[in-house]
Write a structure and sequence with these properties.
- The protein contains 9 helices and 12 strands.
- The protein is an alpha+beta fold and 413 residues long.
- The longest helix has 16 residues.
- It is globular and about 55 Å long.
Length: 413
């Protein structure tokens, strides 16, 4: 959730999606991926695999002994998803960190868990830590030297260096990387009826400000003869701002991008991707929206209940009940504080945050479309009497991440 240096910070190298290829594996024949039939487990996990300096994640993953990375890998192995988005995974343009994580951590069993193999992956540049060259926050002038909070405030997305808080998609099914779309460079001002804070940004800032704080990717997944579009992002948290609510408003419109993208030709006509292709998803296309959306439908600091733009979307087919855990209920009860006054069901919480404010929240989402049949789901949040509780902890110390993995099975075809 938080985009400030913390226990596990961040890192990434950058490249323009319009001018540089995404790192990923090319699509292969669909016949390679039928071992699970047509029931597919999608998951999202803000794994906090970010570091405070550029290159530090590659260093940490170069050997198999990093405790936090082991915990992340074991969590993934326990849930065993087929298609996974990892948020806060520092990006490097050669995909070195991804390869190391696959080889040194996921391909190795941990504490009795079984190794897991993802033959296909996709990653690309993000806006975090990319200098804008403009004074975006109205303080200190335009800070263009990486490595400080002031620099992060003036970057297109908050980060101390390019690529911090990146994303990666891992899959057991082929990914059509050639057909993938990114909206990293889409300008906030080009969204009709946007909620950019009036009068806050200078004309110069408004002219160049990108909407996505990291990026928005449409990654087509080939499942047999079917295609499911994996729509992934990581909107900025709606906090760390002032009465202008610039981050809350940006979070709202980052979420709105997917609502418009899946809302039909007329609604999505204004959108353009990083290759200049206009429009959104064709009507009737199947999709799964996933990510740390930093938005709870009932609690927290969201602007105008931002995530309801997706939860109430006519193209989305929600499961009978949201992904849930018993661990979330226990944590809210034991930790108290802001949790005691929240409206939402703590069983649906996915983040273990400061108990003074905002408390634990439901901010990580997996939302399938119509045309897909939702099945089993859950939040990986064991209770304190479970041996796997060591992978989540009591919230006092972040042993793996302050987020929990969320998964949703869907029936395709």
């Amino acid at each position: 959730m938080n985009h400030r240096p913390r226990l596990f910070s961040r890192r990434t190298a950058l490249a323009s999606l319009a001018g540089a290829a995404l790192t990923g594996t090319a699509a292969l024949p669909a016949a390679a991926a039928q071992r699970h039939g047509r029931t597919v487990r999608f998951a999202t996990f803000n794994a906090s695999l970010n570091r405070g300096t550029q290159g530090a994640l590659v260093t940490d993953l170069s050997t198999p002994g990093n405790t936090q990375a082991q915990n992340v890998a074991e969590t993934i192995q326990r849930v065993n998803p087929d298609v996974l988005l990892i948020n806060e995974f520092d990006y490097d343009e050669h995909g070195t960190a991804v390869g190391l994580f696959l080889r040194n951590y996921l391909a190795v069993g941990h504490n009795g868990s079984r190794p897991i193999h993802f033959p296909y992956h996709f990653t690309g540049p993000v806006n975090t830590g990319v200098t804008s060259g403009v004074d975006l926050d109205g303080k200190n002038g335009a800070v263009t030297t990486p490595g400080s909070d002031a620099y992060g405030q003036d970057a297109f997305g908050y980060g101390w260096f390019p690529g911090q808080y990146g994303m990666v998609v891992l899959s057991k099914y082929p990914l059509d990387t050639r057909a993938a779309r990114s909206f990293q460079h889409f300008l906030w001002k080009d969204m009709p009826d946007n909620v950019m804070p009036p009068g806050y940004y200078s004309d110069q800032a408004r002219a160049i400000f990108r909407l996505s704080s990291k990026s928005h990717w449409d990654v087509p997944v080939r499942i047999g003869h079917e295609t499911v579009h994996f729509l992934v992002s990581h909107p900025t948290p709606p906090t760390f701002d002032g009465p202008e609510d610039r981050n809350g408003r940006r979070n709202h419109d980052e979420i709105r991008l997917w609502a418009d993208y899946t809302g039909g030709r007329r609604r999505s006509a204004y959108l353009y991707d990083d290759k200049g292709v206009r429009g959104g998803l064709r009507p009737g296309a199947r999709f799964v929206i996933a990510g740390d959306l930093n938005a709870d439908p009932l609690d927290g600091d969201s602007y105008d209940h931002a995530v309801r733009q997706l939860l109430d979307h006519p193209a989305v087919r929600l499961p009978a009940t949201p992904p849930a855990s018993a661990g979330g209920v226990e944590a809210a009860r034991l930790q108290g504080g802001a949790n005691a006054s929240q409206i939402g069901n703590p069983a649906y919480d996915t983040g273990d945050f400061n108990d003074s404010a905002p408390g634990n929240l439901r901010v990580d989402h997996i939302l399938p479309s119509k045309g897909l049949t939702p099945g089993a789901n859950g939040v990986f949040w064991p209770t304190s009497d479970d041996p796997l509780y060591r992978l989540v902890g009591d919230g006092t110390t972040v042993v793996t991440s302050d987020h929990r993995m969320v998964w949703q099975e869907v029936r395709v075809g």
